[in-house]
TrEMBL record:
Organism: Prunus persica
Lineage top rank: taxon: Eukaryota
Name by which UniProt lists this protein: Uncharacterized protein
Gene Ontology molecular-function annotations: ATP binding; protein kinase activity
N-terminal signal peptide: none
Pfam families, per the entry: Pkinase
Amino acid sequence: MLGRRCFNLLLKGLICIGVFSFSIAVCMGDESSEFEALRQFIRAVDPQHVLSIGYNVPMRGNPCMHKLKGVKCNSQGTSVTEIRLENLNLRGILDVDSLCKLPNLQYVSLARNQIRGTISNSIVHCTRLTYLNLRSNFLSGRIPKKALSKMKDLRRLDISDNHFTTTSPLLKEEFQHYTYVKKSRRLQRNDALKNQEKAMESVTIMAASDSPTIGNPKPPGKSWYKRYKFMIPLVVGIGFFLLFTYFAGRKAAKLAADREIMKSLRDSPHKMPLPKIQEEEKPLENCSELVFFVEEHESFKLEDLLEATADLRNQTFRSSLYKVILKNNALYAVKRLKKLQVPFEEFGQTMRQIGNLKHPNILPLIGYNSSNEEKLLIYKFQTNGSLLNLLESYIEGTRDFPWRVRLSIARGIARGLAFIYQRSDECIPHGNLKLSNILLDDNGEPLISEYGFSRFFDPKKGCVISSNGYTAPEKMLSEKGDVYSFGVILLELLTGKTVEGTGIDLPKWVTAMVKEEWTGEVFDKEVAKAAKEWAFPLLNIALKCVSASPTNRPTVAEVYERIEEVMHDNSNSSDCTTECGTYQDNCCMLHSIIPETWDSPGSNY
């Protein structure tokens, strides 16, 4: 026992020494190398000097000292964390290699420019990147799907409206190490596919130095190699030594555990050996099932799903979303959930409860496949996209979004939520309500998606996972938390502003405008056409929903009832633009329109 303790102390000491030595080697890369990488990226993306930076600033020093346009740094002002160069008519090339040399870069948005080139596999080296928006450019070539899938911190990716080569990768590639066995209803490893998986893991991504250079910058990495080449053998040696001590420690721990097992067997010969017990429990961990909630003629086999063509539409560190086309041309959306800490039976019970929930404003769950390591949720694919797509297209001027449609959508979302919370004993909170999770069916009716599995992502099952801007201050998975998120959606419909991707605190902004008696400036121009009819009452509902205290928020049923009243009043009145006077006059009528039973806006803050 004493020997093991000494060995563990020695191992910890060696690891600390190794980490310290490695940190010294890494930290020797000074601020100039980061500035040079930023300069190379700017030169490539802006050859016409639209930004007027990248050429007229010193090469050495801290890039955060120069207050460059569109470049933000961390709170210490020592490293670049954000690059926002949107809608600036940039006509250069995307230099991924230089971009990924910024070690702490988390946010990149180059949307609505004329940037050309490809997204190389070197994007995988942007290890801390959480947001990447390359929308509406002239990028081409193949999408580096494998490289993007390895970026564990990447939470939002938008590469739409470009000129990429469209391919249909097999969904089977994502699940290539699984085989479905009908009789045993288990998901077992396939030896041949195991070897294929190992072969895939052995393929190395093209390093930055192997990719073609862009423009006239110096070949990347040369100066770094000359300055620190003497450190490479030291770092490699430390790495090998740490690996050796790690595996030696594991071997010693295993031998010690074996000795303890043998000792317990000698002391208690009538007891079943521990390895045998684990062997008997193992089959339960590998069980799998494919369940459908539709008619038999609409269902299919797991093999059909794995052999279908699929396009990756969205990916986060928790899940991936695919558009799947079966051989019979049927369209489905498949959500792949990863790393869920939930028992097999509990997940199945929850999914069956959700699958039996039928309502015109809730996206129906067609079926699910559950295994020990991952879960697949199957839905009908909605070709009309999401409410976020509609609002963004309206902001860009490519689509209309009339106020009557907004009112109908708000009513539909509230009606769907009210149906969920009708069963007070069985209801499951949503926990992730936002514009992108409200889909539109063929008739433009809202469908609440992503429902039912938010609680599985948190071990305590008590915290929400919704995006910033939609989460209630208490951050609890509850009905009042969903009411808060719904209130933010109402404010987005009224103001024409989006929370996703902008980080705006919309409730705070609207409340400040109301307190300063600038309520008229809150509404979007389309909403202003019917301000007296429904916008003012709906604004009051929204502000009540986003109250800081959960006790001051209404229930979902109360919200739905109030919106129905607004709809009824609206149907019995004429068009505001013809009979209600000017919009400026209506803006002053906020408190006279709202009934006394609902507090005036801003009273809860």
